[in-house]
Amino acid sequence: MSEDDRPDAATAAFLTHRNLLFTVAYEMLGSAADAEDVLQETWLKWAGVDLDTVRDHRAYLVRIASRQALTRLRTLGRRKESYVGPWLPEPLLTTPDVAEDVELADSVSMAMLLVLETLSPTERAVFVLREVFALPYEEIAEAVDKSSAAVRQIAHRAREHVAARRPRAAVSADQARNALDAFRHAVETGDLQGLLDLLAPDVALIGDGGGLKQVVPRPIVGADKVARLLTSGLTRFADRVSMEPALVNGYPALVLRLDGELDTVVALRIEDDRVTGLYAVRNPEKLSHMERETVLRR
Asked: Could you tell me which residues come within 8 angstroms of residue 282 by beta carbon, excluding any fewer than 6 positions away?
């Protein structure tokens, strides 16, 4: 590459940290489409910054992205109020290295993103920036326009809130893969008892069709109800449906294709070797990031 072809300093810095900025925005929003918009907004603001005044490019960029994401998160909350049916995070086809980083995989898992939905926008921003990206309280304070003392209190409150709702123990990739393989086999063969053995008594199935695709209108709770729904539902389309494993949000998941076309992504929440949650995303507007791998960084 000649000197004339090299990106300028602002562009080079942005490209260096682009995957990190996307990850920050995605964890705060649970929406890849909105995270991409945050990247665009971050670039526009960054392009107007005098780099001679910036000591730490990474910290400055994260601060811009966090502020943009926080503003968008408040708007997103209003949009969800009018969303048709249950809302689930947008699934990402992730690279193998995400699964290898246990903390990162846990933080972007569908189960954790749903827990983060129960935080206020500011609590979510503080939790993500502190617990996932280990930013100093002073930097977080600048990003959320609070004092450092206030941020410490918010972080403490958010940690307690998340700890009470997150999966009790991190699941290894092998455990998740084994549970997924057993789940897939039971569903494909219509093995009702096999499914009942895998599902926790209080397992919940949540479907997201966004009003564009048919899904269960409200969560289905209970192993017997969920198992019978899965076995009867897929049996009807057995000759048209294929299931294949994929790494989704850092964990093994199932991709369902109907007549060869991507139809549904099913992520599992696993605790103590039992499936406690099934998250089925069928809204086609949320499946665009399943066609190519997304690189996530901390």
From this structure: 207, 208, 209, 210, 213, 214, 215, 263, 264
What's the CA gap between 17 and 295, in Å, rounded? 12
DSSP 8-state symbol, 239: T
CA dist 35 and 291 (Å) reads: 17
- pTM higher than the cut 0.85: yes
CA atoms in the 13 A half-sphere facing the CB of 37: 13
Find all residues with CB under 8 Å of 295, minimum gap 6, and list them. 19, 95
Residue type, 211: G
Per-residue pLDDT of the chain (298 residues; tens, 9 = 90+): 444 555 699 999 999 999 999 999 999 999 999 999 999 999 999 999 999 999 999 999 999 999 999 999 999 888 889 999 999 999 999 999 998 898 999 999 999 999 999 999 999 999 999 999 999 999 999 999 999 999 999 999 999 999 999 987 777 778 888 999 999 999 988 899 999 999 999 999 999 999 999 999 999 999 999 999 998 877 777 789 999 999 999 999 999 999 999 999 999 999 888 999 999 999 999 999 999 999 999 9
Q: Which residues contact 209 (CB under 8 A, 6 or more apart)?
A: 84, 85, 215, 282, 283
Determine how β-strand 241-248 pairs with β-strand 261-271.
unpaired
| Cα 106 to Cα 261: distance, rounded to the nearest angstrom | 29
Burial 175-207 (b: 16+ CB within 10 A, else e): ebbebbebbbebbeeebeebbbebbbeebbbbb
